[in-house]
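3.2 Worked example (two chains)
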Amino acid sequence: MLVKEIQMDKNQQDIHHRQIKNYLWNKWGDSKRYKEFLIELDKYEVMGAKEVGVRRWEANYNAKRKSPKLNPKDVQTSESRDILGALGELAAIKWLKAQGFEATLEKFNDTENPVSDNFDTDIIFAGQTFSVEIKATPKPMNSKLIYPLHKGKKDKQPDIFLLVCQMDEDKHCIKGFTTSDKILNNVDESLPSKAYSIHEKDLETDLNKLLNKLAKESK
């Protein structure tokens, strides 16, 4: 009985969360802050992104499982996180294209190299190429852009970070943007695993302004 009761509670929570997200999605459609940041995937894009997520999980699982240095508990046994990430990435790339950027899909479609320093996409701005790291979250409010500590120690860092929130498999909202300099100065010890993070309220909402600044600094 207890197992069934727990399962019922979880199902009720899932229904409640979906209701909240549907409410927010409709509200944000009329919001000056969010209406330009909403993007929908069609059913074929959803299917394709989920397939990419599963292939990524399989590649990472097989690579990590063979690593003698890795604790078995650290091997992700569910593909849900990879599917969330793939859906968010495709939605973000689609949004970037809709804004007039030449966003690439090559890195998104590359699922054969689980240990890669490549970032999720590149965009062209003012004749310059900028790398973009896309982070997805299922949390619609008070979300954080989170970046693992070990990745912050690498010499190569993305030019732009983008946080996208999944409202449903086909519905996504771009929460904002930041730079590697800013996020690498924010270590968050309140997380279950200490990492770099920036709260959504501290993200930039004008991508062109941010890119303009980076373009000037790189000259």
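3.2.1 Second chain
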Amino acid sequence: MPDNTPQSDIPAANEDKSLDQLLAEAQARIEEQKDARLRAMADAENARKRAQADVQAAHKYAVERMAESLLPVADSLGAALESKDVSGIELTSRQLKAALEKAGIQEINPAAGDKFDPNQHQAMSAVDAPGAEPNTIVAVMLKGYRLYERVLRPALVTVAKALEN
């Protein structure tokens, strides 16, 4: 059977290294390159995963911290508005609401008669309420807030209980 190996690839017989030595060196280089490539791929994948997790965490929680710090301000401002003892509060209230909305924060402020939703409301008490359907909201004690779909704080409500016969 004829040898199809190109003659230029075979070292001359008078070279210092034997074919076995050349083969061993080439295999060692190949293994080193494979190892370096696998390490580089693993490093790149780990860096990608870390960066992706950092970005997700930053997006997810950056606004939430700000929102939680603003909620007491919104509550105090709402209480001052009810007492109407400070001028300019209405303007401040509108500005605060606009800032919260810009950050993706919406009020959870159910009306009397709305159905109780345990995902958005927290029942603080259940009362007899003639004329009201059971499990409907009778009064809102404290508004709730949500950041996009996530509830930051549920609305604290009083709920109508079923009347006993």
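3.3 Remarks
The longest strand covers residues 121-128.
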